[in-house]
Amino acid sequence: MSDSQVLPTREGYDRWAATYDTMGNWLIELEEPEVYRVLGDVADSDVLDVGAGTGRHAIRLAEQGARVTALDFSEEMLARARAKPGADRVRWLAHDFARPLPFSRHSFDRVLSALVLEHIPGDRLVAFFRELGRVTRDDGVVVVTAMHPAMFLKGVSANFRDESGEIRPRSYTATLSDYVMGAVRAGFVLGDLAEVSVDSGLAARNERSRKWLGWPALVVMTLRRAPG
Length: 228
Ligand SMILES: C[S@@+](CC[C@H](N)C(=O)[O-])C[C@H]1O[C@@H](n2cnc3c(N)ncnc32)[C@H](O)[C@@H]1O
Known about the structure:
By secondary structure, this protein is an alpha/beta fold. It contains 8 helices and 10 strands.
């Protein structure tokens, strides 16, 4: 898009933080029920939220009785998260997952990566998944949601508008097999893969989703560590 400005990912999210929760993001609306469906009961479990942003998942999971650790490299996104009611139940850490995750192996029962994958360069995908696997317990579950690569074919990536126009925190185009094989090469078994499209209910509620009616907009992967 001609008036679109691409910013380094962290800077982009630092700028987006002020409006991230209030802009009426239809992808989030599509994603939330999927995440809670696949995560199941998290009470009394150790949960890691990787790329937690303003904490919508982390705080809710903590309210459901999980011990939640949440990571992000955007200080502004984290500041929004920390200011929310219930945030004191979550351990928040600033961390760039270009570096190894700051936890010993097998630390978590559930690991969630929500709408982060498009910001991982293609040549880092396997390393990213490998880190998720390293910190997950043998019987643990990793849930990864991402904008569906079919959206990239339409020129869409994470974006918002401010007074200067449209801003895109840097994203990396990928295919669905890049995501799936990235996880498999990192030692995961694919438990479930859902490709979720905008349905008529969402289209009726959220005008901006309407032009994507019927189009795959979201991927949800449920991963388990391969035995051995
Ligand atoms: C679309 S937001 C999703 C936030 C939250 N998971 C949610 O679903 O609302 C993507 C988040 O990933 C974070 N992120 C992207 N690349 C990162 C990296 N290399 N290290 C840490 N956080 C990163 C961004 O700062 C941003 O908060």
